[in-house]
Amino acid sequence: MIKLNRRKAIALMGGAAAASSLAAPAIASNRKIKVGALRFTSHSGSFVAVERGYFADAGLDVELQFFQAAQPMAVAIASGDVDYAVTAISGGLISLAQKGAIKVIGGALTEEKGIDGQQILVSDAAFKAGITTPAKLDGKSYGITQTGSSFHYVGSQIAAQEGISLTYKPLQKVGAVIGALKSGQIDAWNIVPHIAKPLSKSGAVHIIGAVSDYLPNYQTTTVFTSAKNAADEREMTESFLAGFSKGVDDYTAAMIDKTGGEDGVNQMVDLIHKYVYTDRPREKAAPSIINGTMRLNKNAALNLASVEHQLNWFKSEGLVDSSIGIDDLVDTSYVEIIS
Known about the structure:
D-Maltodextrin-Binding Protein, domain 2; 2 domains; alpha/beta; globular; three-stranded antiparallel sheet; 15 helices
């Protein structure tokens, strides 16, 4: 196991440009940790666990650290700047796992039939030119944050299943992709519904399909940590997963099962609004937060088959070393494995 400083972690990214329920954690002594997140509704498990004291109950004093893309978060885990994070699998994350710096320890966001998931978007210019279904994207430009990002993976799956080719445009940050799509500098993109639906209502972009049509049961994001934490800090890691999972349970109950009715939804929206769409008044943020409701895996269960599919694609594209195996990437000892 190795611990990397930030410079070494970035260098190692190189060419990448099981229990059924969680053990109750021992109460630690208010241990301070940092948890990486994006300002997306899909990261609500962490937000709820902080706000409702579930991390504190598990003996953890959590500071949230926010990022704008997946790969910088992977670097932060490898360098020790962040202890745990939830994000999509990227080429950078896989390469760092191969070097013994990172381990996936659970699952978070997943695509599920019957729940609106990630949407496939096109610019208004592309839509007016007749790009009204993903099958018509042949030869068009597709926005991604980085080469080897989850957006790159999803775009490739759409292209493969439709028998088309896409030109990928790395734009580094989600905000930059949104700007490029709205201005017609790129033709298409995929993103979670709390971003996709408001964009489509603006008229600047249009929804032409759903990611779940191409990737049912896609393990969109995973929970991960440093290989050192996974191997040597089992109590802390189980404590984190337990607190996080309680946050997920509350989120699911309020937003999907709606066990608390309208009041429960409103309370959850109030909580999430502290972290998502903070630049908007609550009444304008609420519809987007509600639109972003997707399934977060109970007890951080991990769809290993989906993760393996992603890994194999990264290898087939030459974005990571062909020798890396699933055991290099995933520690299956922490959570239930599903398929």
